[in-house]
Protein lin-52 homolog isoform X1 (Priapulus caudatus), 116 residues
Amino acid sequence: MASPSAADDLEQTLLSFEKLDRSSPDLWPEKIPGVSEFVASHSPLSEHCTPPKWLQDIDEDDINMLQEFGSLTPAGLIDKVKQLQNLAYQLGLEEAREMTRGKFLNILNKGRVKKK
C-alpha cells in the first residue's frame, strides 16, 4: 500500500493548470446552466474565497446543530424529526389555548375603540 504522501504526490502530478478560453458560446456551450459558476466557486485555484450565500447567515449555533444532525444515524435522525414534530404540535396546542384565553379575556380588542 502506498503512503499518504505518495498518493498526494500522484494527485499533484495529475493536476492541470491549463486555462481554456471559453469565451465563445458556440465552441464551448454550457450544457447545464450554472455549472461554470459552481465549478469556479469550488475550484481550489479560485482567486476569491467568499463563502456561499446560504452560509453567510449561519452562526456558530447553527453550524453546531448541522454537525449534530449530520452525525446521527438514519434511525436517530428519524427520532429527532419525530421529537421536533411533537414539540411543534405541543406549541400549536399551547398557542391555541392562549389565543382562546385571550379571546375570553377580551385582551385582543383593547386597542380598538368601538364607534357608535
In short: The first helix runs from residue 4 to 14.
